[in-house]
């Protein structure tokens, strides 16, 4: 007997990720803010690839661009690149232990920062501060918690 996933979990998790990105943080912690949208989207690409793909990543990225401000389409591009890489390696990544998954997610988040830096360079914007590169570390450390929480909700476990 297969368990049916509650239909509200995917959209609610993406809305919560958007809200977590809006939470104010003290200036000292601002560089450590994880990219919540990327973490939540990565979970759904790994665990539910039939419903979450490049199109969803693009739409979620546009929603992030509208929510957070900034260059329209930047987050959409970043999330589509991340989703494409995840789709290519999903079969292997899905069966990694959570610690190895966290390292892979950290690499993806670092790649996201490289894409962001490339966009800033291409547009002639000022270079990003060194602390900008710390966020992938916090995302990597939070991956097991995000994975466990979303997996519990997706499978309908108490």
TrEMBL record:
Residues annotated as transmembrane: 52-72, 93-110, 130-150
PANTHER family, sorted: ROD SHAPE-DETERMINING PROTEIN MRED
Function: Involved in formation of the rod shape of the cell. May also contribute to regulation of formation of penicillin-binding proteins.
NCBIfam families linked to this entry: shape_MreD
Localization in the cell: Cell inner membrane; Cell membrane
InterPro entries listed in its UniProt record: Cell_shape_determining_MreD, MreD_proteobac
Protein name: Rod shape-determining protein MreD
Membrane topology: Multi-pass membrane protein
Lineage top rank: taxon: Bacteria
Keyword Signal: no
UniProt keyword Ubl conjugation, yes or no: no
UniProt entry keywords in alphabetical sequence: Cell inner membrane, Cell membrane, Cell shape, Membrane, Transmembrane, Transmembrane helix
Family named by the database record: Belongs to the MreD family.
Any Pfam family matching the protein: MreD
């Amino acid at each position: 007997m297969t368990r049916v996933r509650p239909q509200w979990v995917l959209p609610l998790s993406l809305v919560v990720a958007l809200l977590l990105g809006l939470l104010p943080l003290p200036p000292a912690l601002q560089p450590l803010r994880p990219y919540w949208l990327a973490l939540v989207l990565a979970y759904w690409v790994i665990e539910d690839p039939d419903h979450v793909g490049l199109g969803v990543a693009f739409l979620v990225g546009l929603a992030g661009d509208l929510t957070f401000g900034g260059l329209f389409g930047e987050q959409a591009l970043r999330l589509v690149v991340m989703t494409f890489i995840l789709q290519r390696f999903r079969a292997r990544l899905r069966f990694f232990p959570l610690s190895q998954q966290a390292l892979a997610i950290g690499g993806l988040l670092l790649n996201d920062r490289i894409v962001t830096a490339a966009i800033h360079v291409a547009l002639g914007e000022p270079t990003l501060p060194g602390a900008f590169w710390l966020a992938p570390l916090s995302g990597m450390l939070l991956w097991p918690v995000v994975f466990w929480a979303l997996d519990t909700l997706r499978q309908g476990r108490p």
